[in-house]
Amino acid sequence: MDKPIYQIIRDMREDRDEKQQTLAKVLHITKQQYSLYETGKREFKIRHIVELCKYFHVSADYILNLPSDLPNPHRR
Fold first, then answer.
1. Local confidence band at 2 (pLDDT 50, 70, 90 cut-offs)
2. pTM above 0.70, yes or no
3. Is domain 5-63 given the CATH code 3.30.559.10 in the classification?
C-alpha cells in the first residue's frame, strides 16, 4: 500500500531529527497546525508542499508518492 503524504513528510522530518516546530516555522504556521498535517487531520496546502520540497530537496513526485516515470505531454 502507498504511504500517505503525511507519513512521507513525517518520516523525512524524523530521519533528520527535526521537531515539528521547525517545520511549522518553515511553513509560517503554528506547531498545532503542522501537527494536524502530520496526523492526516488536515490536507496539506500546495504552497506548503512546495516549501517542503525545497526544504528537504526532494521532488513533489516523491512527497506525493507518484512514480517519476509518468508521461509528461509537455516534455519535448
1. confident
2. yes
3. no
